[in-house]
Amino acid sequence: MPVKRHFIGWDAPLTTKVREFLLPEKSSGPVNLGKDLIIVPTRQASRRLRETLAQHCSEEKAALLSPQVETPVYFFRPDSETINVATPTEVVAIWANLLRQADLNQFKGLFPARAPEQDFAWAMYTGDEIEGLRDTLADGGYRIADVFRDFSDILEEFDRWQDLSQLETAYLKQLEEFGLQDPCELMIKRAANPKLPKGNKRIVIAAVPDPTPLMVRALENLAEYKLIIILIHAPESMSDHFDKWGRPITEKWQQSRIDIPNPNMNVILAGSPASQSRNAVGVIAAEQDRFGPADIAIGVPDGSVTPFLEADLDDKGLTPFDPSGKAIKEHPIYLLLDTYRTLLNEGSYAALGAFLRNADILDFLQNEFSMLPLQLLEEFDEFQNRHLPMGWEDIGDRLAQSQERDQFGHIENATVRLLLQTVYQFRMVNPQNPDDKEFIAVAQAIDNSLQELASESINNLEIEKAHAFDLLLRRLAGQRCYVEYEETEIDLEGWLELSWNNAPILIVTCMNDGQVPESHLDDIFLPDSLRTLLNLRHDSDRLATDAFLMRTLIESRNTTGRACFI
What we know:
The protein is of the alpha/beta class and 566 residues long. It has helices spanning 14-22, 43-59, 88-101, 120-139, 144-150, 158-177, 183-192, 213-222, 250-254, 263-266, 273-286, 306-315, 332-346, 349-356, 359-369, 373-387, 392-399, 402-405, 409-413, 434-453, 456-461, 465-477, 528-533, 539-555; strands at 3-7, 29-31, 36-39, 62-64, 68-70, 202-206, 227-232, 296-299, 320-321, 326-327, 480-481, 490-493, 505-508, 562-565. Helix 8 links the parallel strand 6 and strand 7 (227-232). The protein is globular.
């Protein structure tokens, strides 16, 4: 069936235009969009579109039956029938085990200098780097072996790619021995034979400006028997600026001129993240007579500005919300686990001190043993001054002497033998409390990661307990938790989400080279020149896409609001 492009115009924000396409007429009774599979670029875009559809139906006094709004990963993720897909923890563990056992003298192309110390930390890091390469190549439908085989005549580092290919082969063989499927290979297979929900009549690609080559491959296969509509957030007069799949044509957009209304007011220079935040708050203050907090959107392409914005907005009585989620590695539970890992690995007095000074440990010791934090820490410091211990063994030896017991009784009880799962036994959680919502989400992520660690394949690798702890923390460090808050006033959104925000006043921070557009010139495996040759997304493509997105942000507010870039 043909792929149909539909230009929805850019005279209004994207959610409004997509809603008008999906629900063009007045609605009454149940509104069923079940025949459509709607693909949007991000999870925040999905949230925005669902809210807009629900609000429209509510205004029309109609009932909206749950629409299926998905992100592009829908075409590649495992379904209910897919079994034995290696978890992220298994992938890292198998790579680490493989690299620790490898004879690096056989891989001089990849490790040309003095062989590194093959400890577990190095093996995890290197495995992550190689797996990151495999993820990027999978977006183009490639394996490392495919690149080495099919493009060997253009590879500038032939020996390096040969080594990478051999290591990938060994990794895949290890997966096969454990009866596991490789996630990257599964993505490529799913693109060749994508599945759709029952009852689906058409696929609506709702303003996805940068579909990966693998997504395009999946759509090409689906187009043989399914109607696909590509919604483009631009007027019909711009039709020659986009390809069949709604992607901005690089040559057209690279040199396109972007006119910013009132540039003296809407282009603001700032010298630091803190200064950018202050300027953003200044714009909000300047517009307070015309617009309230609900009418304002703030873009944060670079997360370095986010903490300053959160603090500055909070000072002004505005509650910000970061829909990109919070990094688990910043949560107190992770910090507790990290200090405990350091204590187990080092056993130093400093590590013990850091562990005891953890707020959650102090709370636990007070609740369980009636230890006052101040008294405990004073004793701990006095013990250090008197005995200069090097590690926790020194503390145990000293406390074994009876004359010390009376003077340092609190420290004797403050032993790290206490199991971590007892630390939070006194904490009561309320799912309605924002902090507790976050606590529950992080606890669930830790539980899921522990279940991954308990897999049969990882047990077969016979990984040391200390290294298993490293695996756990590395898995958690790469995750974010997402919690919905009810009383927030201003969202701090990423670059790709901004088109989906209907707010008439838009303030975009971080409009810096390297952020918009993002650059990958320093990629250790895939420099921009090689990405271009492999038809992967490269810097020219990013520039074209971001130029188009910036134009839509301006055009959709030309008559009703303002777009300001810092």
